[in-house]
Amino acid sequence: MHITVRLCSLLLIILLTCLPLVICPILVLAHSLSDWWMQSAYLDSRMPVAMYTSPGVVLPKMHFQDRQGQMRFAAKLIAGVLDFKSMIDSETLPVEYLGGKPLCMDQYYQVLTSCRIPGPKRDVVVNYAIGKTPPSHITVVHNFQFFVLDVYNSDGSPLTVDQIYVQLEKIWNSSLQTNKEPVGILTSNHRNTWGKAYNNLIKDKTNKESVRAIQKSIFTVCLDAPMPRVSDEMYHNKVAAQMLHGGGSRWNSGNRWFDKTLQFIVGEDGSCGLTYEHAPAEGPPIVFLVDHVVDYMKRTEMVRTPMIPLPMPQKLRFNITPEIKKDIEKAKQNMNIMAHELDVRVLNFTHYGRKFPKSHKMSPDAFIQMALQLAYYRMYQTCCPTYESASLRMFRLGRTEAVRSTTTESLQFTKAMDDPSKHVQVYILVAFSVHTHMAIHGQGIERHMLGLKMMAIEDLTSLPEIFMDTSFAVAAHFNLYTSQVGSKTDCVMCFGPMVPDGYGICYNPMDDHINFAVTAFNSCEETNATKLSQFLEDSLLDMKTLLEQVSKTQ
After folding, report:
1. Domain-located, residue 30
2. Do 62 and 116 fall into the same domain?
3. Three-class SS of residue 77?
4. pTM of the entire predicted model
5. Are 97 and 105 contacting, i.e. CB atoms less than 8 angstroms apart?
6. Are residue 385 and residue 287 in the same domain, yes or no?
7. By CB neighbour count within 10 A (0-12 exposed, 13-18 middle, 19+ buried), where does 131 fall?
8. Contact predicate 269/226, CB 8 Å
9. Nearest to 486 by CA among 508, 459, 470, 465
10. DSSP-based three-state secondary structure for 359
């Protein structure tokens, strides 16, 4: 009986992975699978969103001459996002294509005017843009104090950069006190803890109105205090940490509302970027928005500013009871532990970029994935389960599928690289050809398996035995959790590891260099982000040498 059940399970897996593409869209992207993925990957998770699921994006450092430079930059950034929003509102956002096939654009319509709301067992994401009167304000936070900033004139036109700048100056001058309670840090807590604190916070009518104003805002802008000074070598590591968690309660972790889908961060010291709550969207739509905003900010604005006096931005008030104060103190302690726990290393690999593997007729992404395999093998003398995120946006409401980059061929390649007795050239093309094509066309196994599991749960039937098997748990313990998030902007996205003894690795291959962000947990003695980054750099250099040698012999 048990053998029959197991055989049936395995046959089902084989069937699912071999289904032709015409069947896969029906199976993979029935509307419920997108919901199931959002629930299981994000909304059911009780871990804090900061650091564990919310990525950060590090933008190039700005060199502000003074505070006005910071305000001017923030004003242009806000205007750029509003320009992007105009395409969303008018549904004129150009459809993206991959391999000549259109991609689902739904995620672009979920990132603005949305917010995650904590629940006792499962959170929800609410999109406030859906309705008769969508919100017309953003929130700005400075020195832990939140403000509502209306960004549209009475005729519906967006405020100009000059108008926004004037309003930001008002906000700055109204929030000079640095002793305010950092209510926003509550959102960084464990979801169950935050859920209880949330219900306690919104018992008060004023607090509830303030929270609703943040949740309903189009996006949030965080005007950050300067980071602690560090060496040039450590600067990008520190900025990446700032984007992920704010640096701790002494710095900018209270200058956030981590449940907000989009938070742009503009530091007084020129450190800039964003953090986003991951549930509504993947990385590519976020960096597409970033690219649009960066391009917009390069333009010279020729818009005449209306000479109409604008009302003072509304400061959001919070009544802090002893119980709320206690919750804030707990959140501060927890955030400080988390900030100390995460090791972040940004590697700017300058020796070559995506043009080099392309010149050898290789996929840059496959090339980088093999470099990651080689780096890990050299560090640990073994391979590990590896997750690379691949887009399923060829299908309606598609989110992601996992590419398992660790294969028999990749292991042969990594072993041969350091074994003089092996002809490593034999393994190159085979190892590098095993990649993303099947996953993006709906032929991966991860989401099929999720669908199978969730169907069993919803139908109240017993789980297929494979989900109880030790091998299944081992295969899903991704020590390398990776993603390519390419951008025209010279930036890098970063995120935390998926497992306690693993790494989070994100990369942006530019033409002539590659930006990497590598994270690990300090509490794990086996992992070391700095060491893996060094192995990665060496692996990329050795692979270049190898390819050049192969080219000479052909």
Report:
1. no
2. yes
3. helix
4. 0.91
5. no
6. no
7. exposed
8. yes
9. 508
10. helix
